[in-house]
Please model this.
Amino acid sequence: MTSSSDQQASKKPGSIGSAHDTSTLSVHAGEARSKPSDAVTDAIVCSSTFTFDDSQSIIDFIEHKEPREEYGRYGNPNEKTVEGKLAALDAGEEAVVFSSGMAAIVGLLMAKLNAGDEIVFFDQCYHRSREFCFKHLSRFGVVTHQVPTGDFAAMEAAINDRTKMLVSESPTNPHLTCIDLEQFVALGKANEVETLIDATLATPYNIRPLDYAVDYVLHSATKYLGGHNDLLAGSITGSSEKLESVRNLRGIMGGVNSPHNLYLLQRGLKTFELRMERHNENGQAIAEFLSEHPRIEHVYYPGLESHPTHDVARQTMRGFGGLVTFLVRDADWRQTADIVDRVTIPRIGPSLGGVESLIEQPLLMSYYTQTPENRVKFGIPDNMIRMACGIENAQDLIDDLQQALES
Ligand SMILES: *Cc1c(COP(=O)(O)O)cnc(C)c1O
Model:
C-alpha cells in the first residue's frame, strides 16, 4: 500500500518535468506517480478520520508537522491532489479548496477581515457575493464600498486607511467586463491593500491573475473546472503564507468537500483544456451570430471588438469563455422569456461552465425579488438573456437560437 510518506516522496504538485502546458498540468499535476494497487487513477479515500500507529506518532505529527492526515475537516488525500492541480493551473504556490465558490469567498473574507475594516468591490458581480458583503460582513462591522466597474479613480477615492482588500471579478458576471489587472494590482500595491480576483468566468486557461501579482484568485470550481454540472466546489489560490489563515479557518468552519466530490472534480479537470477550447470557440461563434441578428440590441462578450473592454480582454486573456449575455431589441420581459422558452438545446437553469449549455433570463433567475430600481442599478434589464455555451456543436446552437429568435 502507498503510505502518506510514499506520496510525500513523489514529486511536488505541479513539478512535472518542465511542462507548463495547461493540458499536461490538468492531467498530471498534484498526483502521486505511483498509486495504490498500481492503478492509473487515484483511489477515493473514504475516511473521515485517520489513525495513528501509537501515541508517539501523534506527538511526531504535532511536533514535526509530519505531513499526513489527521481528521477529514482539516484535509484528506483527494483534497491534496486537487489542490495541487489547481495551484499548478493558476501558477500559484498553494490552493485551498472549499465546498463551493461561495464558501471560498466567505472563507477568505472572514479569515482576512476584522471589525472596522473596509473593502472596495467593483459593482458588477455575482449577486450572492454582493449579498454576503452587504448583508453579512456588515453584521461583523466590515464596510463594503461598491464603485462602478473598471472606474479606478472611484476605487482609489474609496480607499482609506481602514481598507484591507480590493475585490473584482474578471470578466464580471453577467456583463463580462474585463479588468485591467496591472492597474488593479498597482492600485492595491500603492495603498498597501490586498487584491482578490474572482476569475470563475475566465478560468486558469484564459487568465492567470497571479502572474500580475494579484494576492488571491477565487474560482467557483462548480463551473468550468468541474465542468460537468455535477458538483459544487470552490478554491482560493495564492501564496502559502497568505493562505495559512484561510486554511485554518476553513478547518474550523468546515466548508470542505467529500472525497467523492473531490474525485469528480479531479476527473473533470482531466479534460479541462479540451473543454475550454470548445467553450471559447462556442462563445465566440454564438456572440458573433447574435451581434449580427436584427432582433438583438446588444451583445456582451469580451471577444467582440464592440465590447468596451475588448482591448483589456485581448491583453489579459487567452480566450473569452463560453458565457454570452445579450439584450433582445424592443422586447419586454415576456417576449424575452418566450425566446428562452423556445430554445431546445440549452436547458433553462442557473450556472455556467458545464458541458451542457444553459440559458436564463437574469431578471427571473437571480433578480426577481429585487426592486426595479436595484435592477437598474445592477444593470439587469428585463430584456437580458444569459447563455452559458456548453461544448455542443456551435452550428447546432446557432440554428437553435435562430429558430427561437425568428419563430
Ligand atoms: C457561481 C459563481 C460564484 C459562486 O460559486 P458557487 O460554487 O455557486 O458557490 C462566485 N462567483 C462567480 C463569478 C460565479 O459565477
